[in-house]
Amino acid sequence: MPICDIVLSRISLNEKLMTKHKENGFIMAKIAPSILAADFANLERDIHDLERNGADWVHVDIMDGIFVPNISIGIPVVQALRPVTDLPLDVHLMIDRPIRYVEEFVKAGADWLTIHVEADQPQNILDTLDKIRELGCKAAISLKPRTPAEVAIPYLEKCDMILVMTVEPGFGGQKFMADMMPKIRQLREWLDDVNPDCVIEVDGGVDAGNCELCKENGAEVLVAGSAYFKATDRAAFVKTIQA
Ligand code: DX5
Ligand code: ZN
Fold first, then answer.
1. Closest by alpha carbon to 183, among 163, 206, 169?
2. Which of 98, 153, 160, 206 has the highest CB neighbour number within 10 Å of its CB?
3. What is the pLDDT of residues 123-178, one digit of tens each?
4. Is 90 in the active site?
5. Which atom of ligand 1 lies at the shortest distance from residue 205's CA?
6. Are the C-beta atoms of 238 and 47 separated by less than 8 Å?
7. The pTM is what?
């Protein structure tokens, strides 16, 4: 990219962020608490609690024990949650070859369905994104920390969201990787050119101390598991993320 274009796209990012500044100077964002850190024996209670606390979306982590070294929950749980809340269900599939299951997750009630670019061959990832959209669901890709931003290029125009992982997927409660910020900024710049409506979500180790950094770099949706569920005042935590 010529230097003048890089400068222009930086200006456009800054202008875009300016429009999101509130009077208090903070940048606005949505918060999607991850129910991986909820009490699985009381999911309905915890979801109603996050509604009362003003959360925007519910982030649902699906792990298959193959793509990541952990197993969490699956289609029946998404189906059970659907009638419990009107909040968008933001379903993060950490599963191998997700094309096998996207239809079932959409039917179960997902509003947003995120697949990992590392989970299948590129053509299958493209086909999976098409399939998700054809089913009337918002489609997203996710990049693990060691996956460079360039890997997202073939998918930029087929996505409604890009999820940048700031921990290795598989477990909650890990340390936030601040060195992922240039990746977010790079993706935001490319998206501004080809798909400006596509949003960037950040997932992993997000807390009150690093949320502003994520937003400054172009993230508009912040996932928080441990930091939300461990907060002594969850409503105040939600407001801090949303600023
Ligand atoms: C990790 C999951 C995250 C996790 C975030 O693989 O994708 O959504 O629940 O949890 P915290 O906020 O505790 O890092
Ligand atoms: Zn997640």
1. 163
2. 206
3. 999 999 999 999 999 999 999 999 999 999 999 999 999 999 999 999 999 999 99
4. no
5. 14
6. no
7. 0.93
